[in-house]
Structures are given as structure tokens and as C-alpha cells.
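I would like you to sit down with the pair of lines that follows and say whether C-alpha cells and residues agree.
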Amino acid sequence: MVFLPITPHLHISLSGIFGCVPTELATCMNFRVLHIIVVDGDLFWFRAILKSNCYHKKGHNAPCEYGENLFMLIFGAVQVLFSQIPDFHNMELLSIVAAIMSFAYTFIGLALGFAKVVEDGEIKGDITGVSTATTAQKVWLSSQAIGDIAFAFTYNIILLDIQDTLKAPPPENKTMKKASATAILITTFFFLCCGCFGYAAFGNQAPGNLLTGFGFYEPYWLVDFANACIVLHLVGGYQIYSQPLFAVAERWISNKHPNSEFVNKERRIKLPLLPDFKLNLLRLCFRTAYVASTTGLAILFPYFNQVLGVLGALNFWPLAIYFPVEMYLAQNNIRAWTGTWTVLQAFKIFCLLCTILALVGSLEGLISNKLS
């Protein structure tokens, strides 16, 4: 990740700007669709808790099935309420809660995987991974996995919005660079540990989602708690990624209609036992429609791993690789065919090839699941 202070001396072509902005806005919406798919994909805490308790009472082979779309609709309704938070600067508490919940369920998943490996006394699986009937299927699955990995590191779409909330001194970009480096190291460590211990615990039978796949059944109360942490994390994550898009769209509409009361007037509403709440009709209508659209798309394509790979592939190269590299080259006036320029161009091409491979494989999985 290349971190740059935003200065008037940085010149990027208009084609780059017009390419970056739509891509970033589309990415924000893609992330919201995925959050709702995650909720439906057995990660919604209420559904997962019901299944966990059912398995605990009736046995692990019991037919514990519950409705699907209902839980996505419930999650969407919750997001309609939280989406009325005015802007990114009013989300400190929600962000802190989401981060704590993320650490909580990650630690639980890691601990359960490690405990199962110790209990079984063996490491399951093998270096070649899940066996498939044909080589083509192996290629598709491997490509999808690349997309899943790429998706894990596309937080850069909200990096500048987070940086904008920091106070100087020290300079915001330097603070953000240190924080991001630390976050990448921690994230990579936990992702690798959870993935490795999960595969070591279950081998080729490892579910896509360890906590509710159902990989772990006991202790059921701990699995229940982990799923409650997951949904709280998702509630906060949805809003954190949505607020930048809300801000851009509403600012643009406000500039287009500066005299419209519907667009600009804040109405103060008094709620019992709660502080006064400012309601804006544009914010209410636009954000409700936005949440409804992402919920509808999630209901239409409820395939977690496949959608994860597609979105990861679409978002990773343009926002995490291409634009940061081009900005770095432009700001530092690096000439073509120098050593640094050659290395960065090779890096861009390599990542592009990985992105194409991940996109094709994930689309194949998505289409196959939709038609099957």
C-alpha cells in the first residue's frame, strides 16, 4: 500500500480520476451486498444460534434448517435505522464496537481450531488441498481462493475517509501509514492462523465458514457468542463502508439543489428517553433505497464464497494496485524504464493476471451455483 499526502502538486490524468471514482463507489456498494450475503450465509447470529442450539439438543445430524431470506430482510431493516447516522465523523462508537467484535470472534475461531487439532492429535488435509474430479475444477477453485484473499485487503476504499478524521500533528498520512502497516500485519497473522488451523482441524471437509459451516458444535454457548459478535461486527462494517458513498452522493445532490428543503433541511425529532435526532428527508429516502437495493441483490445471489471472489477480483487491482502505483510514480516523477518503474510495472502486470484468474474462476463458480 502506497500512502501519499494529498497535495496540489500531485497531477493525475482526468481519465484516472474518472476511472477511480466510479470504481470506488461501485466497490462500496459491492461490499454492502456482501455484508448481507454473509448474514444470510449462516453467519446471521440468530439463525446460527438457533442451529447451534438445535444441534446441541437433537444431535449433530438433526435436520436443523431455518428460513433464509427472512434474516437478510431483518438485517436490511436494521441497516436502514443505522444508515441515518449523519456521517463518518459520528461513527466512532460503532466503529470501536465493530473492531472489538471482530477480535472476539477471530480469537474464538482460532482457539477452537487449535483446540480441535490438539484434541485429535493429528493435522488433517494435505499440501495439494481439496481433491477434485477434474483439473479444471481444481483451477476454478484455486482461482476463487485467490479472489477471496484479494478481498481481504481492499480496505483502501475507506482509507482516506478514515485519514480525514485524524488530527495533526503528527501528519495524518504518517499516522495512517503506521496504523495501516500494523493493521495489515495483524490481519494477515489472524487470517493465516485461522485458515491454517481450520484446515488442519477439518482437512478437506473444512466448511467455508468455520463457526457456522457447521465446523464446530461445542461448546455451543461459545459458538453462539461468536456469532453474536459477528453480526455486531457486520452491522458496523456495513455502515463504515457505506458512509463515504452516502457523503459523495448527498453532497452532489445538495450542490445541484441548494434551495431544496427536501435536500437540505434538517428536522429535529424528539424521541422518548433519547437525545434529539436530526432527520433529513433526502438522507432517509436515498439511504433506505440504497439498503433496499443491496438487500435485493444479496437475496438474488446468496453465494458467499463465489461472490466474495468476484468482488475481491473486481476491486483489488484497480483500487489496491493500479491507482496507488500510478499516484506514486506521478508524485515522485519516476521516469519510464528506470529500475523502480520496471519493478512497479511488473508488479502491476502480475497482480492483473492474478485478478483476471480470480475473476474468471469466481464467475464460473457463481454461474454454476446459480444454474444448479
Notes: The beta strands are 266-269, 277-280. The longest helix spans residues 220-256. The first strand starts at residue 266 and ends at 269.
